[in-house]
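User: Please predict structures.

Assistant: First:
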Amino acid sequence: MDPVLSIQKLTKTYDNGFVALKGVDLTIRRGEIFALLGPNGAGKTTLIGIVCGLVRASSGRVTVDGFDIAENYRAARKKIGLVPQELSANVFETVWDTVVFSRGLFGKKADPAHLEKVLRDLSLWDKKDSTIRALSGGMKRRVLIAKALAHEPEILFLDEPTAGVDVELRRDMWAMVRHLRESGVTIILTTHYIEEAEDMADRIGVINKGEIILVEEKHALMRRLGQTRVSVNLTDRLEKIPDGLFDRPLTLSPDGTVLAFTQNGESDARDAGLARLLKSLVARGIDFSAVQTSQSSLEDIFIDLVGKNR
């Protein structure tokens, strides 16, 4: 899949000396959903700001669908939609006027049918004549999304799009994201709700202290770094783990009724390990009543990665 966004050796040092980005290299594929994860202050918003022309880079190069953002700013920016964290609209404007204005900013011809569809998809059509200041917080967030989609961008940045919003908006927005991806729009999101990245993203990138520490396919990442905890419920209590019972470390619960081990990597390895343990239990006459497995989440992997890079 060809790249739609290329970031090369990007750095940013602010006037106070704070180094926000340290030689970031990143390629985003056309039509994918890419989740950029990182703790507060990691550089996520600075990176998005540079790509969207809101922050000036100290050095490096960014191309958007082949257009350099420094040399061909208008052409590059026209391809990008941004949903920022904070409200960025004239609160005295109506919803309709603000999306019309946003479309016009990018030199797009008037297209009321497209704007109507965007507003209907976001459950804003009945609010089109309301001023933005009269809307609830959730509705204002919907307006930000509508503004970003008004000029039909090919790349959509979502910077913490569901922070503090209601469940209904979150559900509606992710349905729209899936629809946009199906139509060929590339989605790049940052989020503190890691379960959203786990559910939505094709690839995961992790940034910490201004550096990209990992970029990988989501499923490959979870297979490679994920862990499965396997627990076997015993029928009778054990005083201790018998010597030579298993070929890897086992734990015994305080009440002596649960044996457990942790398996990294593929499920095949987990299943093979479990089979060996059960065979050993049977051979020693140790009865068991149930087997349980629990898979580590993307959040567990993220916390571990960031912790190792502190």
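Second:
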Amino acid sequence: MRSRYAAFARGDADYLVRTWHPRTRPGELDLRDNPVWTGLEIVEASGDEVAFVAHFTTADGPGSLSERSRFTRRGGRWVYVDGDVA
């Protein structure tokens, strides 16, 4: 989870695609309008789920995104499957 947050913060679409389950990953990932990510709080981690709050800033000011993400092991590595935004 932390590495994917860092990839969003750096705009590293290649890493995000590589760590996204093939069944649910988008055909392409455009991060050009990506906000400036300013912090990550892990609220809960249990089994294959991680609840977090990611903080960001846009031209409109600060904001946050709350999500409960689901991951699975694939080829010995954790990959993002999907999530529910709160």
